[in-house]
Amino acid sequence: MSLDGAPSRRRTARSSEQKARVANPLGIGESLLVNWYTRTRSSLILAFLQVWTRQFRRIDERCLAAMRISLACVLLWDIHRGWVLADDWLAMQAYDQWPLPFGPQDPALSLRVALALLGTATLALDRLRRVVRCLQLSIRLTLHHRLSRCLGLPASAVESGVANRTALESRRAA
Amino acid sequence: MLPIGRRWSLDALRRRAVGIWPAWLSSTAALGLLATICWIYLTTFFSKDGPAWWSEGDAVRLAVADRAVARPLGMWCVQHLSDEWFRFLTWGTLLAEALVPVLVLTARDWCRNVAALLVAGLHLGMWLLMDLGAFPLVMMGVAAVIYLPLSHAVVADHSDDGSAAVAQIWVARILAGLMATNLLLAIDDERQFRWPVEPETSMARWLRRGHTFLAAEPVWAMYAPEPLRFTGWWLPVAKTIDGDLVDPLTNGAPTIAAFSAVESRLRWAYLGNPPSSPAESEALNSTRATTSTGSAPRPEISAGTTQKAYLGFFLRQRSEHAALPAFVWLGLVYVYEVLEGPDRGRMVPMISASWPEDLPAIQIADALQHPVFKLDASRLGDAHWTPRKMAVPASASAL
């Protein structure tokens, strides 16, 4: 896959040891001198793992692009939904106080600002290169969901988890 | 770290989006993404160990019948499909969740494609039957990376890779360090989940905060170990100084009739937290107090946190809008719906909180023209529990 295929400057400078490893990946000649059985077995396992890892980590570039586009659409849809619900969000999540250290004066406005910033940052990060590009996916997949969790999920998740567990344990006890 | 802009992007049109990161970093990121997908389905499969998922096979019916996430198609299925169909769906879901990681781990093309179909089908069904927000859509989008086209025209041309900029190695190392930290936090999160230890030091509390923002550990609380065996919704009942009886959520007349699935989409979507008992609230308060950053003390709450928060929200909202008539009294009712046993489908309105606190139950019963019952949050979902009646409407008792 292309993820492996892109050559870098560092990869072009191979040591002689690396070249020898490429020529004889299992190291069979050396194994006879040291410990024939152990060396061969471990080398085979390592070779298998290496091949499996190469196979496992393949991702098509078009599929990555499809994921990027679909996640961006989902994010925009989710921001729109959060925008509509901003006024009622805190009460819906059973929070009586703003859970973040900033913006407690107007929670709905703070939430909308956070959503706008998130959307803008996501779009902006598409256009920046190098350092910020790598953060794009992690922001989409991590920050967005962590922010949502921080704002919303703990109360409901904890309480429904407690309720589920309590109900199940009382049933088991019965 | 993944070359997500190499195709179908403005950068690709300008031929700028290639070779940004070292290959080893992109490979590691691809490995991490696929391993995360496997981990998600493995953990969700193993955490669903309740009888509703296995011996009874009712889990999907219980989940779809939940009013908080209701969709019209889901409610139609609950009303018209037999329990056998839902057992088939329940066990099919478990099978799909078990198969996906296995198929992805085989690293064979056709297995990966079958896994992608399973993930897409599973979450498409979820999206059609339940309103779970962005979750099914996100997972359908993520399913795309599992798919491997049979024609490997994948690796188009790398002729321009040689001229591509290679990232600074220290940035790559920092990112690799962040990935490793995330992995360690995920492992520690799992350790805390399996063998919880109450954090006592400030360092432990900081770590807890780090877990919330960074750790990749998926937490399955909604349908694990099994879905709730009841559902319900909140019904605020108020009397204004004009003498009108209103439901401040809808501004209509208060009624215990179930709302339609369409109405639930926005207004009710996240109002699905069931009432909490005082014991659970104390536990929750103590947990929050240990992680709280602010110096302001939280008010002592004797009843459940959820109902108090909802009641406070309605009172605050009314006091902030001068145009709306003030309340004389406000009662918060949880309409409890039983999903199993002989009383399946029965709706029981239970008084959860009221303002003022000594509000007579008969006032709410009269407003609803329906008997009201006493809430015992710790017994919700218990098929052997019979709620105790508090008051019947004055008109009915006169008869």
How does this structure look, described?
- The complex is a heterodimer of chains A (174) and B (399).
- Chain A has 174 residues and is mainly α.
- Chain A folds into two domains: 55 residues, no CATH class; 113 residues, no CATH class.
- Chain A is built from ten helices and no strands.
- In chain A, helix 6 packs antiparallel against helix 8 and helix 8 packs antiparallel against helix 9.
- The longest helix of chain A is centred in the middle third of the chain and has 25 residues.
- The N and C termini of chain A lie far apart (56 Å).
- With 399 residues, chain B is of the alpha+beta class.
- Chain B has two domains: 205 residues, no CATH class; 169 residues, no CATH class.
- Helices cover 45% and strands 10% of the residues of chain B.
- Chain B contains 13 helices and six strands.
- Chain B has a six-stranded mixed sheet, with helices on both faces.
- In chain B, strand 4, helix 12 and strand 5 form a beta-alpha-beta unit.
- The longest helix of chain B is centred in the middle third of the chain and has 26 residues.
- About 10% of the residues of chain B have low confidence.
- At the A-B interface, helix 1, helix 2, helix 5, helix 6 and helix 7 of A face helix 2, helix 7, helix 8, helix 9 and helix 10 of B.
Keywords:
heterodimer, A: about 170 residues, mainly alpha, 2 domains, 10 helices, disordered N terminus, B: about 400 residues, alpha+beta, six-stranded mixed sheet, 6 strands, about 10% strand, elongated
Report how far the terminal alpha carbons of chain A are from each other.
56 Å
Number of domains of chain B: 2
How many β-strand stretches of chain A? 0
- Number of helices, counting only DSSP H or I runs of 4 residues or more of chain B: 13
- The amount of beta strand of chain A, in percent, is under 5%
Largest sheet of chain B: 6 strands, mixed
* Poorly predicted runs of chain A: 1-14, 20-29, 127-163
Q: What gross morphology of chain B would you assign?
A: elongated
> Mind describing the biggest β-sheet of chain A?
none
Placed side by side, the strands forming the largest sheet of chain B appear as: 2-1-3-4-5-6
- Rg of chain A, alpha carbons: 26 Å
